[in-house]
Design a protein that fits this description.
Structural class: alpha/beta
Order of helices and strands: HHEEEHEEEHEHEEEHEHEEEHHHHHH
Number of helices: 13
Oligomer: single chain
Number of strands: 14
Mean pLDDT: 90
Helix content: 25-40%
Strand order of the largest sheet: 5-6-4-1-7-8-11
């Protein structure tokens, strides 16, 4: 067990201080929104003369500068970088292997936490005073950065290491929707009993993971959250850097909760094109007028579904930039491919993991409409809203 530094022993008090809002009421809140990383006065004093491990990727920025470079310029002692899905530069395809190595621009050692091990080994954290997490999330349960966060929190609890989360707004944070994960469908693409669209930031979720006892044996991570300021959940928040290779713009991020469920079917959602998560298509479709041909794209989609085949379907790029989760795409397309239900849900086990339940798939097969399916979630959503309330950092209006 690693001995606590003085900073670590004081971190419960630090955490409370960091959570105090800097801005006033909503009427006089200034623009723009400031992420946790863009408020160095709140975290640099805690990192001085400390040995720090970073969990970062291409979204970890202070203005136009990468957080790694900013911290090095400020004299912070960075020991190593921990890489999650897509790697620290965001150039590894969905599900692609992320390797240990050295970050070329900085020369810092990289420890991979994706593709082999999800939790940092004790040897990689035993010399650290802080582990710092700054990753832009998109607010969807199966987007794996929050699963990685869970494993990092578990390691910090196990090894006595304090964790700092530099929080960022959630671009899908203005609503809650979709099925709530059932325990038997827990996996790396869904670890917590929360709705598919949960409406929380990474910092809020970290507090909920701690407070609800979701770590093994109810362990608690010593947690400090530096919240964003001037942010309300109802705000439209446009990401300055794409969070992963196949989410290139605001529309793709807003459509992601609805379209990613097609990953468990035979339908393409545009991987292998320049507009992923902005189209729907299948070689057997006879209704659509839009055509595209998925092709390998290095670092984004090496072997896309229906590779090299002409796919017919719907172009969604003209939609309003703020669509919400919809089941209608799935319901409509389950009858457009000319396949049986078993053929359409070609990866049914994976679909159920994404959905967090097998009830959604079975309801679609049974011919239930969207309104009927949604009614089955109402009580769970209300319970979740009440359960998450103590952990929220930002106004909902």
């Amino acid at each position: 067990m690693k001995a606590f530094s003085l900073r670590a022993l004081l971190s419960p008090l630090v955490a409370v201080l960091c959570l105090l809002p800097l801005s006033g009421c909503s009427e006089d809140r200034p623009e723009p929104v400031l992420t946790g990383a863009e408020q160095p006065e709140r975290y640099l004093p805690l990192l001085k003369a400390q040995r720090v491990g970073l969990v970062v990727n291409q979204t970890s920025r202070v203005g136009q500068q990468h957080l790694v470079d900013f911290l090095r310029d400020e004299g912070v002692d960075i020991a190593r970088i921990f890489a999650l899905e897509h790697g620290i530069r965001g150039n590894v395809e969905n599900g692609g292997k992320v390797d240990d190595g050295v970050d070329g621009p900085t020369g810092l050692p990289i420890v991979s936490l994706y593709g082999g091990q999800y939790a940092p080994p004790e040897a990689s954290v035993e010399d650290l005073d802080w582990l710092l997490f700054d990753i832009q999330d998109v607010g969807v349960r199966f987007y794996t950065y929050i699963s990685s966060l869970h494993y990092l929190m578990q390691a910090c609890a196990d090894y006595g290491l304090p964790l700092m989360v530099l929080d960022r707004p959630n671009p899908n944070g203005d609503y809650i929707d979709g099925p709530v994960l059932e325990p038997e469908f827990r996996s790396f693409v869904g670890m917590h009993p929360i709705p598919l669209v949960h409406g929380m930031t990474v910092g809020e979720l970290a507090q909920m993971i701690n407070g609800e006892g979701w770590l093994d044996e109810g362990a608690r991570c010593e947690l400090t959250v530096v919240p964003a300021t001037n942010y309300h959940k109802s705000d439209v928040y446009s990401l300055p850097v794409k969070p992963s290779p196949n989410l290139p713009n605001d529309l793709s991020i807003r459509l992601y909760p609805s379209l990613a469920l097609f990953e468990g079917t035979t339908v393409s959602i545009g991987r292998g094109t320049e507009f992923p998560f902005q189209t729907i298509g299948h070689p057997g479709d006879k209704q659509g007028e839009f055509e595209f041909t998925p092709q390998p794209i290095a670092g984004a989609s090496e072997n896309p579904k229906h590779r090299g085949s002409v796919v017919t379907g719907d172009d969604l790029r003209m939609l309003d930039n703020q669509p919400r989760f919809s089941l209608q795409y799935l319901i409509d397309w389950s009858g457009r491919t000319g396949e049986s239900s078993e053929e359409f849900f070609s990866r049914s086990a994976f679909f159920d993991k994404l959905a967090g339940t097998d009830r959604l798939r079975k309801a679609i097969v049974a011919g239930q409409d969207e309104e009927e399916i949604r009614r089955s979630w109402e009580t769970q959503h209300q319970q979740f809203r009440e359960r998450r309330q103590p952990y929220l950092l930002y106004p909902e209006g």
